[in-house]
Amino acid sequence: MPLQVYLDGRWYPKNEAKISVFDHGLLYGDGVFEGIRSYGGLIFKLKEHLNRLWESAHTLMLEIPMTQTEMQKAILETLKRNKLLDAYIRVVVTRGVGDLGLDPAKCLRPTIFIITDKIVLYPESLYANGLEMITVPTVRNLPEAVNPSIKSLNYLNNILAKIEAKNSGCMEALMLNHQGYVAECTGDNIFMVKNEDGAARPRLLTPPVYLGALKGITRQAIIEIAARKQIPFEERILTRHDLFNADEVFLTGTAAEIIPVVKLDGRLIGKGKPGPWTGILRKEFRNLTRKEGVHYTL
Ligand code: PXG
Q1: CA separation for the pair 85, 81 (Å, rounded)
Q2: Is the CB of 163 under 6 A from ligand 1?
Q3: Is residue 158 lining ligand 1, measured as CB closer than 6 Å?
Q4: pTM of the model
């Protein structure tokens, strides 16, 4: 049976799930989305993802015409129809169908769709050996222009950075903000680990989101794990120099989970292979995804 896609209250086979060419999500990138995962019948941090979706929409003054409870029901039903226990869930809300002007008031009703599909995992070698990354010339959107805290359908900033990384033979890009401080990557937040004062435990550092990053849900989960494990943590303004001289660097995101970074702009990070603290945090995160979440059965 073809994949079933939720669209505005109904389910359609993948090939028949279509939206109008006049939808402002397409014409202007005027809309919001979330990428969520389920692990063995547990949807990880669903409430947090829905809260972020509603917050992104609120900032755009886009009123989602259903409640979070109704959205959760629609997600669960979509997962069931596709018999998926381990899934990638994409929720999209657009401004809806309007005319060729950009005035959102012309759009009478938002378009809502939910795609659930099998999760495409990154190759295990990436986790075993780590990732090589490059800093790209495209700077992260200014918070005062298109705030990176809004998970909007306008991802050109990230796509340009991805293209530049790939042109240089790297899978992922480090994006700086307009002041040259570390912001994040194209679809992941960034952390570093460094033993700064010969303490028993190193310090875990990540840039504050106001410098130009998405408030990642995986990022928050890692911060909470660090607190539980009594790993000192700090949000700190970081430069490339800080990352070059870190003991460990890793990325966090719903799709990637935790990916070690072993090289940045040609500089080896730490020992040039995934570090022990990245491994510990990755294991703890794994355990969490298999233990916590909104439970469902098929
Ligand atoms: N920064 C950006 C710009 C993102 O898009 C993250 C950080 C990490 O946030 P979470 O909440 O996921 O920890 C993201 C999220 C995809 C995909 O298909 C991308 C994301 C999430 C899920 C899937 O590329 N990016």
Answers
A1: 11
A2: no
A3: yes
A4: 0.97
The predicted model gives 217-226 an average pLDDT of: 98
Band (pLDDT 50/70/90 cuts) for residue 94 is very high
Check whether residue 60 and residue 146 sit in a common domain: no
pLDDT(198) > 90: no
- Please provide the average confidence, as pLDDT, over all residues in the chain: 97
Q: What is the pLDDT of residue 74?
A: 98
Sign of the CA dihedral with 138 first, then 140, 143, and 146 last? positive
Is the model's pLDDT at 200 over the cut of 90?
A: no
Please tell me if the CB atom of residue 35 comes closer than 6 angstroms to any atom of ligand 1: yes
Instruction: Return the best residue to mutate from 146, 224, 254, 259 for the ligand 1 pocket (most ligand atoms within 8 A of CB).
Output: 254
% residues pLDDT > 90 (the chain): 97
Average pLDDT over residues 5-34: 98
- Residue 8 included in any domain: yes
Ligand 1 atom showing the smallest separation from residue 35 Cα? 22
Q: Is 162 a catalytic residue?
A: no
Buried b (16+ CB within 10 A) or exposed e, 245-283: ebbbbbbbbbebbbbbbbbbeeeebbeeebbebbeebbe
Q: Which of 117, 152, 167 is the last residue of a domain?
A: 117
- Domain for residue 69, yes or no? yes
Q: What atom of ligand 1 comes closest to residue 49's alpha carbon?
A: 11
Residue 134: which domain range? 124-288
Our answer on whether the CB atom of 218 is closer than 6 Å to any ligand 1 atom is yes
Q: Tell me the C-alpha distance between 211 and 179, whole Å.
A: 9
With contact defined as beta carbons under 8 Å apart, do 260 and 133 qualify? no
**Residue 46 maps to which CATH number?**
3.30.470.10
